[in-house]
């Protein structure tokens, strides 16, 4: 119904009628379709990603309730955890969004990790048709600052980056399509190729230590330009007539008291 949230309900065949027929129910807002990925054995926790291998004999599933999510791969009937390259020889696992942007590339046949890198603040990733490079991008509207894209080699080295100027936004970044078979398959190499250093500053990875633990004084000023207690600012505002009158009265009272003490005789006793 218009104005009402969408919902998904699961039933146990053949019981579809009755108030208690549904075994699960979930409401969604701003949704118009749902995709189900059934597993006869079932897995604990939600499914985050599903991807087919180009050879159509493998597919990948990222699932789990706690971090790090589990990723496994099986021939023809199993799961795996992330996009594969266009040849199906490499498996890439990445954590974006609220995660740090760590990227792992694995050799599917050898079941060994090829590289580990970090693409922080990325919102999308896609493989190149050559099966050797992949693209990460930070795009709007997910993020509206530090937009741009980077090209990586699967060995973990950064090959190129293009960052938007301040105030500019990038909405999408994709590889140019090419006919199948343009790039011949190559064996997986575990040797890192040369690359470039990113111009984006990286967050400091050192453990924070208070000034006292670093041999530095822990005292500090609220303001750097704060004058010392004994200093008088040169540009002080002029006093009002009432303030001047009160100051003169205090000074006269103090002088009178000092004169009275001076006239008081002092006695010495043996």
Walk me through what this model shows.
Helix content is 9%, strand content 25%. 17% of the residues are buried. The model is unreliable at 73-82 (pLDDT under 50). The protein contains one helix and twelve strands; from the N terminus they run E-E-E-E-E-E-E-E-E-E-E-E-H. Among the domains are: 1-34, no CATH class; 83-186, no CATH class. The chain is elongated. Residues 88-171 form the Translation initiation factor beta propellor-like domain. Keywords: Initiation factor, Protein biosynthesis, Repeat, Translation regulation, WD repeat.
Q: Could you list some keywords that capture this structure?
A:
four-stranded antiparallel β-sheet, 12 strands, three-stranded antiparallel β-sheet, single chain, 270 residues
Estimated radius of gyration:
35 Å
SS element count, helices: 1
Please describe the biggest sheet, giving its number of strands, its sense, and whether it closes into a barrel.
Answer: 4 strands, antiparallel
Cα distance, first to last residue? 110 Å
Low-confidence stretches are 73-82
**In percent, how much strand structure appears in the residues?**
15-25%
E-strand count: 12
Write the element-wise H/E pattern from the N-terminal end onward.
EEEEEEEEEEEEH
The strand order across the widest sheet is 9-10-11-12
As a percent range, the share of helical residues equals under 10%
Any idea what the shape is? elongated
Class from helix and strand fractions: mainly beta
What's the pLDDT, averaged over the residues?
78
């Amino acid at each position: 119904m218009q104005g009402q949230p969408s919902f998904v309900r699961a039933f146990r065949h053949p019981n579809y009628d009755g108030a208690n027929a549904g075994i699960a129910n979930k409401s969604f807002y701003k949704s118009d379709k749902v995709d189900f990925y059934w597993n006869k054995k079932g897995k604990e926790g939600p499914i985050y990603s599903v991807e087919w291998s180009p050879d159509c004999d493998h597919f990948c599933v990222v699932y789990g309730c706690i971090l790090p999510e589990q990723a496994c791969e099986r021939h023809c009937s199993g799961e795996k955890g992330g996009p594969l390259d266009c040849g199906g020889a490499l498996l890439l696992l990445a954590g974006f969004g609220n995660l740090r942007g760590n990227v792992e590339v694995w050799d599917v046949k050898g079941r060994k990790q090829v590289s580990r890198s970090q693409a922080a603040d990325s919102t999308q990733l896609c493989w190149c048709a050559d099966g050797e490079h992949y693209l990460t991008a930070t795009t709007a509207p997910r993020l509206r600052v530090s937009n741009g894209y980077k090209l990586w080699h699967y060995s973990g080295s950064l090959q190129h980056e293009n960052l938007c100027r301040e105030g500019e936004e990038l909405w999408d970044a994709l590889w140019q399509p090419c006919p199948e078979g343009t790039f011949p398959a190559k064996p997986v190499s575990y040797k890192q190729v040369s690359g470039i250093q990113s111009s984006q500053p990286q967050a400091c990875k050192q453990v924070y230590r208070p000034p006292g633990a670093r041999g530095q004084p822990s005292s500090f000023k609220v303001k750097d330009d704060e004058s010392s207690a004994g200093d008088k600012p040169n540009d002080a505002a002029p006093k009002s007539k009432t303030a001047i009158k009160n100051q003169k009265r205090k000074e006269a009272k103090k002088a009178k008291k000092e004169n009275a003490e001076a006239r008081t005789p002092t006695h010495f006793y043996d």
